Amino acid sequence: MYKHSEFILSSTTEILETGINACAGIGEGIETYSVCDYIMQSIFLKMTGFQEQKMKFICWELASNDYEYRRGFSKTILGECSSFGEKQSIYKDLVGQIEKYGTFDINSLDKTQILSTAKTEVENLFSNSNLMYSAQYNFDEFKKIWGTIKVGDFVTDPNTLMAEINGRVSLKKIYTDHLYLHRNRIAHNSQSFQKNLPRLQSLILDNYRYENYFLWFSVLIVLDKVFIDIYKDYLEALQNKIY
Q: Residue 183 burial (CB < 10 Å; 0-12/13-18/19+)?
């Protein structure tokens, strides 16, 4: 096992479990709602940070195992690895390394299973929890929205981590226009000088339904599972090269 592989292959779902368990004893009344919102922010930030660190570890592993890749990598500035563009670039690098030693088979990813598992894990972990009761409407909306997500939304070819879809909101749109923006707001505390509640005008917009932690957790789980599965393919390709 390579130095960072254990972390790369670990699941971000563990963070969800820890967060939900941490607030299991605080009750379900309306007095706990502000606490639950704070916990949801904390879980979200921990999950995005976990994934950003995983992206960096993947790059470091590629650079450790391929000196040619390392030369190019050493000349680039590795950012926070939080934006879609950065994740897209790392996805292409990982696939490129697999193709260097063999063939990248998109069909090796069970994308139907990945989508189903992401939804099921969020539903099962939050079901009947105080975190769900404090945001019941968003929990129900998440289940409706997730039903519109398709396998064609992600890993459609060796160059596409998430695809832009015409006519409906895609995983990429949710990530770039909602999840990533909220990650920046929390991480950089840009809400500290703003009013605590959204304006009424924003609440009536259809896009506001995508401001949903349950939805964002599922998107992060999908990305996590994609990178775990592809990294497993990379390890296998690397072993074939060595032997």
A: buried
Residues 10-61 pLDDT 10s: 999 999 999 999 887 787 677 777 888 899 999 999 999 999 999 999 999 9
Distance separating alpha carbons of residues 130 and 172, to the nearest angstrom: 30
Q: Which of 44, 23, 45 is nearest to 35 (CA)?
A: 23
Look up tokens 């390709």; give the residue.
237
Distance CA 148, CA 170 (A): 8
For the chain, the first-to-last Cα distance in angstroms comes to: 15
User: Nearest to residue 8, comparing CAs of 44, 55, 43, 45?
Assistant: 55
> Sign (positive/negative) of CA torsion 210, 215, 216, 220?
negative
Number of H helices, E strands in the chain: 12, 2
pLDDT tens column, 152-195: 999 999 999 999 999 999 999 999 999 999 999 998 875 544 45
Task: Please give the full DSSP string across 81-109, using - where no structure is assigned.
Answer: S-SHHHHHHHHHHHHHHHHHHS---GGGS
* Mean pLDDT of all residues belonging to the chain: 89
